[in-house]
Amino acid sequence: MGLVNIIMTMCNSFFLVGVVLLCSWISRGNGSVSYDSKAISVNGQKRILISGSIHYPRSTPEMWPDLINKAKEGGLDVIQTYVFWNGHEPEPGKYYFEERYDLVKFIKLVQKAGLYVNLRIGPYACAEWNFGGFPVWLKYVPGISFRTNNEPFKAAMQKFTTKIVNMMKAERLYETQGGPIILSQIENEYGPMEYELGAPGKAYTEWAAKMAVDLGTGVPWIMCKQDDAPDPIINTCNGFYCDYFSPNKAYKPKMWTEAWTGWFTEFGGPVPYRPAEDLAFSVAKFIQKGGSFINYYMYHGGTNFGRTAGGPFIATSYDYDAPLDEYGLLRQPKWGHLKDLHRAIKLCEPALVSGDPVVTPLGNYQEAHVFKSRAGACAAFLANYNQRSFAKVSFGSMHYNLPPWSISILPDCKNTVYNTARIGAQSAQMKMTPVRKGFSWQSYNEETTSYGDDTFTVAGLLEQVNTTRDHTDYLWYTTDVKIGPWEGFLRGGNMPVLTVLSAGHALHVFINGQLSGTAYGSLENPRLTFKQGVNLRIGVNKISLLSIAVGLPNIGPHFETWNAGVLGPVSLSGLNEGKRDLTWQKWSYKVGLKGESLSLHSLSGSSSVEWVEGSYVTERQPLTWYKTVFNAPNGDEPLALDMNTMSKGQVWINGQSIGRYWNQYKATGNCDACNYAGWFNEKKCLKNCGEASQRWYHIPRSWLYPTGNLLVVFEEWGGNPYDITLVKREVASVCSDIYEWQPTLVNWQLQSSGKVTKPLRPKAHLSCDSGQKISSIKFASFGTPEGACGNFRQGSCHAFHSYDVFERYCVGQQSCTVPVTPEIFGGDPCPNVMKKLSVEVVCS
Ligand SMILES: *[C@@H]1O[C@H](CO)[C@@H](O)[C@H](O)[C@H]1NC(C)=O
Predict the structure, then answer these.
(1) Is the pTM of this model over 0.90?
(2) What is the pLDDT of residues 155-182, one digit of tens each?
(3) 3-class SS at 729?
């Protein structure tokens, strides 16, 4: 703790005349941030802080204000981001802070919205980001070893960290300077690594902590997943649940830096999602156990544009099932259900920050956590941990019905305003509406065996990252194989078999310029073996191996030493001599594609070659460049490209890469229905099995001109470009699914203000996007309907007028509100049965 922090902690703890004078002297003008066992204090005020991760390079500066506003509207106090070193220092000493990497602009926008910032400088980020955020050149600093007690690494880390801190200070962005940054992070999830490395890891932790603290930011530092974080640094928790966590010192607050809202998608994997009920449950559980800072990782996941995805095999979409979807639209009901949770928690804030809860068992699987302040505030959390059954509990003088795996929040210790398993917010089904299809394409065939000036030849096989320095995904390995006329296979025998062992990640094999086959690994095992009969002829044959990196690793012990590319052995079997080892013969290398060296993706570069058009356009051919020009569609809905009929490659819009696509890689896994109740993990709730892991690729609106936009596709494998479709993302329908008597915060406020004395029923709120109207009622039932938004079904009890009510109140409106009362639906259809309302309306 810096002197100011120590004094501020005293300010918060004691009421001594001298100290009070000192406190008013310190807090004059600029803010202060300190902490104690209970919470982070900002300007002397203990806070329950709700934070969310938005990584600035995963969206565009034009998207930032809207994302930040939606985060604020969703009840967030803080935006958390990593700092992405490899984006900021692409070459040693050459810094970049423009466009998507304009860190200062991003932080100032957060400040403008009135939110705080938690800046995770790292500079190790992990984040499923290429190379974990490290620049690839860092690997080639002599004598370097990453993230351990290594002088060259520490020097580089200190230089970059200092650069960022100084930049923040110069812009007056720390809270102590009147700025929004209230917390900073050094390193990232280093605990498990330190455990593996032993003494050098421990020494590195001590060094990193001291280095950071000595930078004198005036705000606390944190280290996540680092049980031995040295004082005054706060160790914090990352996970799906963190209620079990305690910081390493009694005077540090309990903080959750990554509450995982979902999980990342990998090419070849299904798309994970996390039910809103379980996410809300985990957060309420953390708060009831005394937690005071929670950060959603991710609040907006966004997109791995360009070649920023790590892994390898991390998909271009980093949607993460976050409350704001990849495109920046509200993911409902998750966004709304968390917003309601945050409002309920904030109502409890005075009691929550006052001390530890009193915990009382209410049954075998049920507990009450009660917080009280000296000023008389009382807040209670009633939990039912049972995964299968409801629980009826008594608390105070009342009875409460708790759904399975849920927590009810009572900001006055009497009335429930929120239950984590009872969603009051609307759900939304999204759709991708085609706006433009049948582009008129031109094509250009990439060289398959290039021997230009920039090829070089060595004996043996080279490691890929060492050779490309990651300036491109592609590396050609080419060698000659002589076949004599005496070979037996030429007279009707089996084709010789080529075997190629590669460290990954994908490989296309060309024999005399013809694609002969493809092999690829996966996130779990990036290595691959190609083993296939190949068509060789008498004389000299060219074997060309196009090795492709699909993102560099971002996690694991010394991930920087992991290899990629064809490391061999490479052999040919089925010849008269038996097996011929090709590993150590002469190989020619070419880094990258011809089209890349000509910048075919750019406006200027694309005119440097002759493209063919009309009936000459090559379809379903490997290594083909396609280009077309199109006008931007009207409207402001987010746009994407449907690449479903393409296989694998990259796409650019006006020279900007919208990322790697790989529609050919289908998701394998178990996509059975999943129940919100019970412990969640990243394999529990999956979708897209049997389909492409990622079908749609986000095109930021701001990358388009009104007319004449250049769209360039490089297809490695073969696909049909004529089915590439430009789509817009919009709300297809919205649903409400509400129990009669379901508690709501609005009703509690009406009642506690004394304006209303009788119990109030909840209301169904349905709202299409601005610019849309409710066009029809797809489903409506007050009674005992079943299913979920998108597939509701009538149950045995159904009020006769269910549809009429919504026809009358909602059709033709952008939004509507209907109270969940039997009278409005023509009377109670089944007295003494707990009823609910399920409704789905179509937006168009
Ligand atoms: C790649 O380069 C690094 C650093 O120069 C070196 O230590 C390593 O041995 C190289 N790897 C291979 C497989 O050549």
Answers:
(1) yes
(2) 999 999 999 999 999 999 999 999 999 9
(3) strand
